[in-house]
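To: structure subgroup
Subject: Chain for Friday's discussion

All,

I'm putting the inputs and outputs inline so they're searchable in the archive.
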Amino acid sequence: MTLPYLTDDCIYSILQYLQNDHSTLFKCLLVNRFWCRSTIPLLYANPFADITKKNYSITLTLIFCFNKAEILQLKKKLGLSKINGINFYKKHNPLFEYPKYLENYNSIIINSVIYGWFDKYCSKVLLNNQKIYNDIIPIFHQSILRQ
């Protein structure tokens, strides 16, 4: 007996219906490759929408999407080779170009998420240096807007 088959349009409609239910969308990522490729744009359309959850891991995802020049610039500005155990000398290739899916760009919220990530994962020595933020934040915005 053959299993029923849902058309791609039907699956996409289901995912659109679930657009605001992130926990369910994360489960849809694991169904198969098509579902994953269809779900990622929905999840990353507005990843900063609920800043109250303090989900700063998106910052590391954005760093992985930096090109080589931006990674070198970040390392130079920070003077570090590792943050939170992540070695910047190794190339981490993300599966998707996540910033290209952003539909809502609010620099104030993005700055807040980046500040929160540095507060949580970087040493207090770096946090006291306002120059770091003035140098680092533009790298993030440049990378996001480039894509």
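Points worth raising on Friday:
The first strand starts at residue 82 and ends at 83.
Residues 49-146 form one domain.

D.
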